[in-house]
């Protein structure tokens, strides 16, 4: 089944065309990576999928229903996890459950379990400022996962952490995904990250954002950075990035 169907999506901001006639499908259980330079409309696309922004033209459907606002089964992880500084980690992660009206005891149990899954066991009572950047990012992921979403939309979630932490977080995300097979749409401008994670990479071109190319990453899993098969895909993507704008062919 198809999770998202995007057809002819266009989004303009005054004189900027952020997305121009973008069409793509996101399949159930797929790990889709949207790759593109700064300003190619990646965040705009993700926010439209999340129901946080409207399109100017075209259609976006989630499980065959038009996307007209945020849904509990669609979890979003932003680049900046934006945790409330006055709430403990546990109460930040549980905020969606509070909104859902889940009783406190239940909430605490689910939050504790989710924190353990993302490697933050026992951190419930700490405050965000007591965590490292990587730990805050994990808390942001836990906040999205605790509502048991069918889809995770992730916008450059590891852009602000150091390289070694980033590699660790990528590996953890892959392990988690291999267990849950949640549909993931992951935005990045990092080619290595894209091919490591993805079943499929959609490359956007900058201004206006259009689908320039698609790559199926058929490398075996589990994967690790530096795998030979992945390096071949990386070269292919870098070659596509070197093509002058306008010469991209659609696959
Ligand atoms: N709220 C807004 N008002 C005006 N212009 C906007 C707005 N949001 C995005 N844009 C413009 O739309 C284009 C795409 O922006 P978007 O944030 O989607 O790009 P991006 O691919 O996520 O870039 P980055 O990699 O830097 O995060 C840019 O030219 C940006 O200036
Ligand atoms: Mg962005």
From TrEMBL:
One of its GO terms (molecular function) is ATP binding. InterPro entries: AAA+_ATPase, ABC_transporter-like_ATP-bd, ABC_transporter-like_CS, ABC_transporter_ATP-bind, P-loop_NTPase. Residues 4-231 form the ABC transporter domain. Keywords: ATP-binding, Nucleotide-binding, Transport. CDD domains: ABC_NrtD_SsuB_transporters. Gene3D superfamilies: P-loop containing nucleotide triphosphate hydrolases. PANTHER family: ALIPHATIC SULFONATES IMPORT ATP-BINDING PROTEIN SSUB, TAURINE IMPORT ATP-BINDING PROTEIN-RELATED. This is Nitrate ABC transporter ATP-binding protein.
